[in-house]
Amino acid sequence: MGGPETASRQLTVYRQKESMGAAGDLDFALELLQRARNGKLGPSLRLYRPQPTVAFGQRDANLPGFQAAEEACRELGFEPLIRKAGGRAAAYHQGTLVIDHIEPHPDAIVRAKARFSEFGELLAGALRSVGVHAAVGEIPGEYCPGEFSVHGEDPDFPAHRIKLIGTAQRVVSGGWLFSSVIVVEDSKPIREVLTASYAALGLEWDTATAGAANDLLPHLDVSTVEDAVIEAYRGYADILDGDFRALLSESPQVS
């Protein structure tokens, strides 16, 4: 990865074994960003499998169909939330892997766009390392469209491409948070809730773009992808193993 962020560094990896709840997981990422900007947390990577959630963008919440979209999510067993970052609605559940990369930085806005490209390529490389035909780039009609989404290609039908990873970034004075969601297993519920949500919001998209990595490579699971992601990050930094319980013990949310 090019640029000044390739200097020798350490990155502590925290594997979160249990979800803190849909809202709790999102809020904790922001808490970690706050710690980083205050000098209380160094470069960190948090990985976890979330509860069924639909994270709506701020623009979604202003649409007249938003309440109907929320109701549709709950009926399908997903918790609707509004995230701080931009973009449109994205869905995830325990068949997905969420990656929160947090770093303190004196001028966090510098290279903000470059991070999308660089970490997109890093994550696409992680998927390729386990056999998925993955590349960076938006595909026509994808949900929560983004220039640096990661998609997978069916090797037998190259025209069939599905979105596998969405990324978002939050930059504040003193630090940044780069979040990624990899859809690995069980794409059907995600496709169903996105179909219902986007219909309620009046937004068009191509349902064929929603899928999971194991739609392209059967038997692939979240644990395998998690290990591949950490291995890919070794090209970015020296990896240290962290204890997620230590992060919780410092949290005001935990009594």
Low-confidence runs of at least 5 consecutive residues: none
Give me the strand/helix succession: EHEEHHEEEHEEEEHHHEH
Mean pLDDT: 93
Shape: globular
SS element count, helices: 8
Helix content: 25-40%
* End-to-end separation: 41 Å
Largest sheet: 8 strands, mixed
Rg, nearest Å: 17 Å
Side by side, the strands of the main sheet go 7-8-9-10-6-2-1-11
Overall strand count: 11
Report the structural category: alpha/beta
Estimate the strand proportion. 25-35%
Could you write a compact summary of the structure shown?
The chain is α/β, with parallel strands linked by helices and 255 residues long. It is 33% helix and 27% strand.
What does this structure look like?
The chain has helices spanning 22-37, 58-61, 66-75, 112-129, 187-201, 213-216, 222-233, 244-249; strands spanning 10-15, 44-48, 53-56, 79-82, 90-92, 96-104, 134-136, 150-154, 157-172, 175-183, 238-242. A hairpin with a 2-residue loop joins strand 8 (150-154) and strand 9 (157-172). The protein starts with 9 loop residues before the first strand and ends in a 6-residue tail after the last helix. The relative contact order is 0.20. The chain has eight helices and eleven strands. An eight-stranded mixed β-sheet has the order 7-8-9-10-6-2-1-11, with helices on both faces. A three-stranded mixed β-sheet has the order 4-3-5. It has 255 residues and is of the alpha/beta class.
